[in-house]
Amino acid sequence: MLKRGSTILSIWSGINFLLAALILTSVVIFKANSPLLVMVFEKSEIASLDAKVIASLNALTILYNSCSVVLSVLVWLLIRKSLIAGQKWAFWALVFVIGFVELMAFIASAPIGNVRWQVNVVQSVLYVVGIGLSGYSLFKGDTK
Fold it and tell me: How many structural domains comprise the chain?
């Protein structure tokens, strides 16, 4: 079960990495605006926004997604090197790190109408199932 849990957590990490890298690429390389603009505002509202507001949102998008890319890589390494080896400290680190990120994703989305609830739910389900299987395996002694 530890291997299954680790695999599911690795999928969480991969999806998180892919989404963040795609958004980062679109904003930094292709000079697109933050996806949140079209998810939250109507076209007429976007047209009336000050350029500094749009630039600020793009800057926050770049900052968040660059951190998300790095976090995904570090989490994946922690899963593949330490959790899969049955190290309980890695389990607890992942509980707090990924759990914090998932909780904050819901809190951050709430004031803007939970615009990315589908992604938040899928990621949270992967986290809960992966951490649950891993924890059960680690604390019941079944590290297969």
Answer: 1
What domain range is 102 assigned to?
2-140
Evaluate whether 8 touches 136 at the Cβ level (below 8 Å).
no
Q: Is 71 exposed, middle or buried (0-12, 13-18, 19+ CB in 10 A)?
A: middle
Which ranges of the chain have pLDDT less than 50? none
- The string of pLDDT tens digits covering residues 95-104 is 999 999 999 9
